[in-house]
Amino acid sequence: MRLVVASTNESKVAELAAVLGSADGLGGVELVPRPPGLAEPEEDGDSLEANAAIKARAVVAATGEAAVADDTGLEVRALGGAPGLRTARYAGEEATFDDNIAKLLAALVGVADRRARWRTVALVAFPDGREVAAEGACDGVITEARRGTGGFGYDPVFVPDAGDGRTLAELTRAEKNALSHRGHAFRALAARLATPAP
Hints:
Elements: E1 2-5, H1 10-20, E2 30-32, H2 48-63, E3 67-76, E4 83-84, H3 97-107, E5 115-125, E6 131-142, E7 158-160, H4 173-179, H5 181-194
Parallel strand pairs: 1-2, 1-3
Antiparallel strand pairs: 3-4, 3-5, 5-6, 6-7
């Protein structure tokens, strides 16, 4: 199966390739980089799945090939589920990962309840209009300070419940993929793609 990757985030693409190319994934999937110069669509959906579909459909329309996309949200309980759909733009439209982390940690100063959940929806859109989606989640807590240098995004401040107390940024790529929301979502997506349509 050949899929054009909607994301240009190299770290995210590497995670996607590791999961979809693993023994319990699709194995033979060929991931093709998104064409250069393709404009980013406006992610104005009202859900993670809607935003993933917007991104995948834009690539299908531009290339005529099947495309894979995802959308991810960090839901912090003490913040009423924020940043949620605004996770990548939490500190503003041009925010960096550091900006977003700084705003999150500032919002949680003195807050005892630091429970949070990552949710990812992974989706493949096909030229014939068919779409296949799957969701993955990872529960954990937000730390009081950054720890670790691996991964990307909010990884240095998120400790998954299923781990050993390290942040996602302190895990190896394989360890992170085994525990993370994105790993769960793409493994579930691979299983759905491998199952013949009724």
